[in-house]
């Protein structure tokens, strides 16, 4: 038993009513979260719309293989005339002179096929010229090239027709297919079910007019999420949340992990193909149609109170042509115009606004859609571009139409559209986000105000969520908050990505927030890493967000999803590949809060050893980092005893760390340099101090001048100032002086003799926290304890229990859910968390709980 002891004292009179919508999720199509991720579609580029705007090496046949055996002759081209859908005009032109020939789709990192599972393949086809009926053999191909299932469809007309067939992999994983005679008719197979063409264009002049709706059918039974999951009194978590009337079954075994879809053309002729699709048949119905059940399950188990979507940066897009328009993502998938993704790939919008809204309903989350504030992203070479004033009335109508689509009765124009798609009942929209990390300038304010006023006038019950920039400080943050107060915006969306040390140091960030102004939605936040220490720092900060839940009304970790091997951003809450889901430690932290939601919180003071004081190294090295090209001259270090160490000039190309020859030691020193910037958006950096260790310092020059401390391997800014990239041109030169004291705990940055940043780190870092909140309706009290230290600690909760009048019987039979581990740095990107919560019974009759080292505990009383 530890000798260390904390005493918690509760201020009952200081109780605060807090938001019951505090914990939610934020879905953005980043790191291949939608296509190849949440979307259950297995075919990549089935519409042949990939192009260089998505990625410089992509084209209409990306993800497709053209197979022409020896002795065959075939050509595969691209057509755009008379397409299925003018919104997505490209299609494959198949010319077979000597059969056979094939097209193979490799999917998103291969296709996973499972034993006994049925897959639905559909495609649009038409024959060309004098070609007779064109059979197409469809096969699911395994990892070794074996055929796992096969069927045949036939293109019989010169009009576009949609053809569909089901293919079932045998329960034992062996080949199972429909045997097709040479007449092209499917017959007698054991599992596959071939269908006739079920949708053909009815007018040759407009071949898309009779396209199918493409929307999921109304569910046979309403999705009815179970009550919040309760953690069992054992070392394992309870059963997953029930999405329908039965628990989502475990996946059957995979018989292929690098599978493919093969289309084989067995007769000569010409054929056009488009919108080729393959999905598990089980995913084509219900509220979560066309989505991976295991990823939906991972979201449902978080019990989010709301879901923000679809972004993020993809909302306002990279330029006007890339701006997200919600109404272009509903209806038949063929008519949803594809676009490039801000994060460097493609958006098919197979998961669009209707699907997002259905997903929210399925997992019991309130929808929080985010629309552009009529300006594009500021982080482009052209800067933010507004929708033209003459086009603003139409855009405002688009915004108002979304509210009607969500909430209007079925006899309203957009409510009727929703009903046509299979959802006659309103979605019950309460929140609407306008803008994301926008530059707060007069044009933004003009466009935002027009939208805001229109929404207030038409739908005063809707809570509009504004934006205050990408960080919890800086010009956009200050201007955004000033404008939000002036305009009376109900809620503003803050973002904050920080190191564990920053979160620990800033537990009281919201203590002094203006209770009379807009509420805070911390819409994107996270700690830089997937290790246990990251999760504990988030738990500590979240505990204090909950305490300030009267002003912080909502919060959501970001990013939510990342596909292994395609991470645009790390860390992420949930990683996945084609076969499995991997929950990071932060996932479990989020779940421990969201399954214990409260409506009241009490201030608590702690007496005892609650802080960490580091012994910083005295080593002094120097390393050049960053993405900019720069020349660094007249580089020197002056030590505390007056010695000047001259260092060689560095011609830095922005392609990786460059170590200098500096190797000395001391408590304090001064760096001097003359830096000439040439190109590169993100500037140049000096890593200083013990640069090979986890605790050192960084000076950043360029887009922002700042001084930073790196603690436990990740850093945060002590002080700094933003610099407009318009003011940083090739040839810009800075005379730099950096004064470092207390082994890097104190730093001052001078540019051209002017003090730019002056920062001093508090040596005492809070690492142990105790907070108390209640679900008053249920009569349940939750005590949250974070111990981010290497020793266990006794936490005396006697006064807390007495102050709340908790009966001895409740104290003696308390439940604790504990997330703990023996290595604070355990946890890797793309892997399952090494530790998960454990549920145990504890006896608090004596009022003392012993919190394990490196742990987060939620005690239920």
TrEMBL record:
Keywords: Hydrolase, Signal. It is an enzyme of class 3 (hydrolase). The keyword Coiled coil does not apply. Residues 202-228 are annotated as: Disordered. The keyword Hydrolase applies. Gene3D superfamilies: Galactose-binding domain-like, Glycosidases. It catalyses: Hydrolysis of terminal non-reducing alpha-L-arabinofuranoside residues in alpha-L-arabinosides. PANTHER family: ALPHA-L-ARABINOFURANOSIDASE 1 (PTHR31776), SECRETED ARABINOSIDASE (PTHR31776:SF26). Belongs to the glycosyl hydrolase 51 family. This is non-reducing end alpha-L-arabinofuranosidase. It comes from Bifidobacterium lemurum.
């Amino acid at each position: 038993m530890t000798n260390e002891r904390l005493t918690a004292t509760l201020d009952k009179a200081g109780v605060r009513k807090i938001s019951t919508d505090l914990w939610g999720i934020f879905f953005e199509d980043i790191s291949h979260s939608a296509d190849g991720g949440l979307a259950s579609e297995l075919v990549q580029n089935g519409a042949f719309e990939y192009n260089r705007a998505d990625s410089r090496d992509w084209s209409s046949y990306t993800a497709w293989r053209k197979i022409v055996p020896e002795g065959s002759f075939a050509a595969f081209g691209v057509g755009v005339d008379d397409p299925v859908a003018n919104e997505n005009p490209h299609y494959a032109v198949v010319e077979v002179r000597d059969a056979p020939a094939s097209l193979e789709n490799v999917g998103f990192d291969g296709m996973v096929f499972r034993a006994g599972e049925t897959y639905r393949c559909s495609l649009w086809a038409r024959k060309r010229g004098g070609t007779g009926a064109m059979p197409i053999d469809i096969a699911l191909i395994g990892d070794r090239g074996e055929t796992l299932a096969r069927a045949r469809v036939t293109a019989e007309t010169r009009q576009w027709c949609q053809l569909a067939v089901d293919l079932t992999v045998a329960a034992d994983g062996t080949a199972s297919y429909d045997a097709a005679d040479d007449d092209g008719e499917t017959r007698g197979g054991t599992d596959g079910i071939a269908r006739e063409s079920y949708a053909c264009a009815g007018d040759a002049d407009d071949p898309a007019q009779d396209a199918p709706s493409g929307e999921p059918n109304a569910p046979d039974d309403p999705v009815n999420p179970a009550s919040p999951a309760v953690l069992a009194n054992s070392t394992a978590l309870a059963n997953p949340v029930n999405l329908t009337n039965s628990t989502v079954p475990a996946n059957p075994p995979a018989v292929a992990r690098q599978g493919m879809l093969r289309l084989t053309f067995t007769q000569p002729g010409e054929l056009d193909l488009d919108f080729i699709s393959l999905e598990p048949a089980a995913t084509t119905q219900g509220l979560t149609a066309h989505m991976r059940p295991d990823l939906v399950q991972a979201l449902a188990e978080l019990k989010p109170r709301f879901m923000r979507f679809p972004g993020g940066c993809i909302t306002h897009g990279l330029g006007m042509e890339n701006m997200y328009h919600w109404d272009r993502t509903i209806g038949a998938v063929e008519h949803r115009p594809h676009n490039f993704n801000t994060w460097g790939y493609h958006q098919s919008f197979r998961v669009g606004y209707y699907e997002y809204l259905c997903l929210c309903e399925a997992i019991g989350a309130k929808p929080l859609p985010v629309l552009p504030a009529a300006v594009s992203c500021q982080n482009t070479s052209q800067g933010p571009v507004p929708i033209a004033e003459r086009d603003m009335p139409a855009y405002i109508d688009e915004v108002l139409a979304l509210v009607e689509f969500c909430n209007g009765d079925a006899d309203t124009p957009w409510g009727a559209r929703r009903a046509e798609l299979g959802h006659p009942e309103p979605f019950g929209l309460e929140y609407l986000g306008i803008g994301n990390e926008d530059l707060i300038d007069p044009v933004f304010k003009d466009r935002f105000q027009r939208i805001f006023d229109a929404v207030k006038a038409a739908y005063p019950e809707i809570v509009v969520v504004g934006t205050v920039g990408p960080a919890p400080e800086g010009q956009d943050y200050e201007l955004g908050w000033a404008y939000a107060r002036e305009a009376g915006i109900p809620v503003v969306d803050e973002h904050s990505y920080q190191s564990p040390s920053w979160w620990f140091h800033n537990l009281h960030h919201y203590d002094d927030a203006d209770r009379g102004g807009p509420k805070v939605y911390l819409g994107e936040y996270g700690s830089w890493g997937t290790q246990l220490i990251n999760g504990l720092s988030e738990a500590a900060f979240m505990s204090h967000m909950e305490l300030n839940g009267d002003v912080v009304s909502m919060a959501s970790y970001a990013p939510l999803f990342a596909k292994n091997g395609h991470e645009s951003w790390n860390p992420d809450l949930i990683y996945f590949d084609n076969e499995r889901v991997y929950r990071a430690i932060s996932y479990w932290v989020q779940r421990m809060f969201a399954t214990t939601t409260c409506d009241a919180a009490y201030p608590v003071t702690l007496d005892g050893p609650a802080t960490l004081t580091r012994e910083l190294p005295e080593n002094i090295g120097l390393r050049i980092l960053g993405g900019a090209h720069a020349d660094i001259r007249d580089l020197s270090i002056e030590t505390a005893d007056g010695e000047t160490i001259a260092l060689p000039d560095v011609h830095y190309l922005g392609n990786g760390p460059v170590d200098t020859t500096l190797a000395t030691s001391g408590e304090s020193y001064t760096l001097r340099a003359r830096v000439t910037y040439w190109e590169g958006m993100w500037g140049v950096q000096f890593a200083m101090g013990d640069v090979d260790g986890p605790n050192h310092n960084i000076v950043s020059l360029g887009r922002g001048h700042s001084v930073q401390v790196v603690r436990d391997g990740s850093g945060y800014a002590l002080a700094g100032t933003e610099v407009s990239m318009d003011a940083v041109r090739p040839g810009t030169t800075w005379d730099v002086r950096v004064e470092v004291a207390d082994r890097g705990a104190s730093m001052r940055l001078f540019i051209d003799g002017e003090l730019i940043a002056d920062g001093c780190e508090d040596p005492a870092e809070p690492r142990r926290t105790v907070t108390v909140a209640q679900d008053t309706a249920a009569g349940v009290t939750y005590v949250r304890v974070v111990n981010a230290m290497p020793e266990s600690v006794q936490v005396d909760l006697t006064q807390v229990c007495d102050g709340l009048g908790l009966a001895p019987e409740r104290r003696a039979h308390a439940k604790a859910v504990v997330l703990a581990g023996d290595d604070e740095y355990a946890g890797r990107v793309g892997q399952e968390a090494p530790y998960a919560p454990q549920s145990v019974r504890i006896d608090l009759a004596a009022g003392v709980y012993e919190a394990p080292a490196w742990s987060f505990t939620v005690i239920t009383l």
